[in-house]
Amino acid sequence: AGEGINLQRANLLINYDLPWNPNRLEQRFGRIHRIGQKEICHMWNLVAKETREGDVFARLFEKMAQEREALGGRVFDVLGEAFEGRSLKDLLIDAIRYGDAPEVKKKIFEKVEGVLDTEYLKDLMARNALTNETMRIEDLYKVKEEMAKAEALKLQPFFIRDFFRQSFGTFKGDLKQREPGRFEINYVPEVIRSRVRMIGSKQPVVPKYERVCFEKDKVRVEGKPQVAALITPAHPLMESLIDLVLENNQRFLKQGAVLVDPADEGTEPSILFIIDHSVLDAGKDKAGRPRVISQRLHFVHVTQSGRILKGGYAPYLDYEKIAADDMSLLSHIREQEWVRRDLENVALGHAIGTLVPEHLGEVKTRREDQVDKTLKAVNERLVREINHWTHRAAVL
Q: Which pTM does this prediction carry?
């Protein structure tokens, strides 16, 4: 098998010339087992039966099959390193020279077993991995907690749908439901269509849409020929609506909203701030802006007594709109001195002093660990390459 050739159309590989380095076997197999391959791929290794070196190869392939079953295909990634210092070539030569002696054969087999020891291979894979694939139980719970937080903060389709329906109606747009989860837009007002040109969207907003939806699984529905346009914050129709709503209601964002926590039986009011924190690195994105490598929303309560409390992941999801009859109870709170203080800077100060360092520390630890592993892996591979070509130069 030519090691510089890609043979995606082939699915059977026969190794009649076995390499000294077992890692080459997987490299050869990779020439046919590639993206786009539609057939099941097979690799056959021709070994001379009842020969000394054939016995060593047979034991090697048997052990490799066991380890691949236990550790997966990644075991091939470290075979070359596993045999460093314990050359397969030397084992085969010893087998050819002295393989008739049972004690020599036993010793050679023990060396093959030692090189392909499960725990030894696990250690090599862990040291070569750019990411940790094993974790402690507390790390696992932390990941589950982060996933729950991400799910809570994710912009759910029904939020997008409700916002679109209300704001689209405000601008006299016509949205009618046709099938479950799918809608028809007979008329898009000119104010929305002209806005898309002002914000510089690459796609136009058309005067009508035969079908729109807010969930991916509703784009195509069996038995319905119409393909629905998926309305997301990136869709030009939604972009135009958001821009118009912000223009008309920007002043209210500073005023906030009055909400009630039904689970809080206390009477002390507090102000909830949402703080968006991003960690950047020295790289640039496609637009030439600093690259964001981690972004997090922090929720901070500043209470009447001056306490600063964490708000959790998405506390607003559990709050309710205050009843109209209860609004009169808040008139005296709005006039109190603590409300008039610069509480935004108080919340920011807490975030800068506590929340931001925690976020930055997590990102820094993760990134530095990845960089160290990458640097080590690159260094080891370069050293091996240098040694290989230095040896080749000496031979030539």
A: 0.52
